[in-house]
Write a structure and sequence with these properties.
alpha/beta; Rossmann fold; two-stranded antiparallel ribbon; 9 strands; about 25% helix; flat
Length: about 230
């Protein structure tokens, strides 16, 4: 097999990736998965005890106590997948202030941390909503008459769900904002009447690893093509 000129190797790699051809179909090309270490977003060297406060609820669906469920999801995630000491206490309420004023209220956060013995506090703003996404979709079916595959339009009842979570990580010593990040989970379910609490859990799982990556080191994987011939 003739070796590709060096200047054409990047083009060939892009072509192979863009066409999603299996590496086995290319002589001398191997597709590998590489893993790169990702440090935690926050320096956790002196942080051990975490207090999760109540969440500011922007929008919620009936039948779901969004504040309670979000606190539970965040706590459970840290307990299961980190070695942090997540304090078991009723989530403290937050002052009724504009969000940015609240985040700048270092005295409040410092006193709250001192009261509960927390090294860091996690607060946030959360929204959970649904949308009617019913409409006509194109589907391939097998005709009962001819036995051939045919394409038809069909009206399908669908309901979309969106979870938005904006988290704030507050230093328990200084009361200052250490880090903030936003996450969004979205899914569309066929039919109506889907259990909203179950959907909430699955939406949180979509970005759970990204949330944990703020607190603990992790790894990021990606596929690359290597020319061996």
């Amino acid at each position: 097999m003739r070796r590709l000129p060096r200047r054409l190797l990047p083009v060939a790699a892009l072509f192979a990736a863009g066409c999603a051809w299996p590496a086995a179909g290319w002589a001398g090309v191997v597709r590998v998965t590489i893993s790169a270490p990702m440090p935690a977003r926050i320096d956790m060297s002196r942080i051990r005890k975490i207090l999760v406060t109540r969440f500011i609820v922007d929008q919620e669906l009936s039948g779901v106590d969004l504040n309670k469920e979000t606190v539970s999801l965040v706590r459970r995630s840290m307990r299961k997948k980190t070695r942090l000491d997540v304090l078991e206490t009723d989530p403290p309420p937050l002052p009724e202030q504009p969000l940015r004023d609240l985040l700048a209220n270092s005295g409040f956060w410092r006193r709250l941390a001192e009261t509960h013995g927390a090294d860091m506090l996690i607060a946030g703003k959360v929204s959970y909503e649904s949308q009617d996404r019913s409409g006509f979709v194109t589907v391939d079916e097998i005709s009962p008459v001819t036995g051939q595959r045919v394409r038809r339009s069909r009206f399908v009842d669908r309901e979309g769900f969106t979870l938005g979570l904006h988290l704030f990580f507050m230093d328990g010593v200084t009361g200052r904002l250490l880090y903030e990040d936003q996450f969004t989970g979205e899914n569309t379910m066929t039919g109506h009447g889907t259990d909203r609490l179950t959907v909430l859990y699955t939406l949180f799982e979509q970005f759970e690893d990204d949330f944990l990556g703020i607190l603990v080191p992790g790894a990021k994987s990606a596929q690359r093509f290597i020319f061996t011939d």
